[in-house]
Design goal:
mainly alpha; 7 helices; single chain
Length: 209
């Protein structure tokens, strides 16, 4: 899939090599897939990562940075490894974060870690509600907003607190939690930082009658 700024186009039977050679990339992002049972906490499931990174870099100019996107976790019961952790989402997250920190962050060829999974887990300590739309894929509004902000911050270092835009349906409280979660994830990428933003009380509008 390719986006030029005016929409998406797609090309079938396109190899990794074809993609790497198709443009002058500044960044190439990789992340764990989900077709093997989402075994994010198993070191063996990353055994091919060094070879993949080496392969990718062989087709890129020296300036291109490799980004590892630390993905988020699904809801309890969403896949077999979550069940193996007793459906304890935080226990599962801590295991994934420790593995990312010890194995992937120091891996040769990986230049940047985007702690997307940590930002999502941070937001889960608030009252914004469920951040997935099908127990695993992020919600189209707030979930994706958090992921996008994290990735943007990890790549650019920009101050996300200056961002005024948010998707329709993301209210001021949700936006504040998103920004807080991202900033905390960048500062502390491998552990959860609880939200300290209080959810405003709901006030019934005054009747016109």
């Amino acid at each position: 899939y390719y986006n030029t700024g005016s929409g998406w186009s797609s090309t079938y039977n396109h190899s990794i090599k074809d993609t790497l050679q198709s443009d002058d990339w500044d960044y190439v992002s990789i992340q764990h897939g989900t077709l093997d049972g989402s075994r994010y906490a198993e070191e063996a499931s990353y055994s091919d990562l060094p070879g993949l990174v080496e392969y990718i870099k062989s087709y890129l100019p020296e300036k291109t940075k490799i980004v590892f996107n630390m993905t988020w976790l699904g809801e309890p019961g969403s896949h077999e490894e979550m069940i193996a952790f007793g459906n304890d989402q935080l226990k599962y997250y801590n295991s994934v974060a420790a593995l990312t920190s010890s194995l992937i962050a120091g891996m040769e060829g990986i230049d940047i870690i985007s702690p997307t999974g940590t930002a999502v887990q941070n937001a889960r300590t608030s009252s914004v509600g469920v951040l997935t739309r099908d127990n695993y894929h992020l919600s189209l509004k707030l979930g994706r907003y958090i992921a996008g902000l994290t990735f943007f911050k990890a790549l650019t270092g920009a101050d996300v607190s200056e961002i005024t835009w948010a998707p329709d349906g993301v209210n001021a409280y949700m936006k504040a939690v998103a920004l807080e979660s991202v900033q905390n994830a960048i500062q502390t990428p491998y552990s959860v930082t609880a939200s300290v933003i209080e959810k405003p009380e709901f006030v019934w509008p005054e009747s016109e009658y």
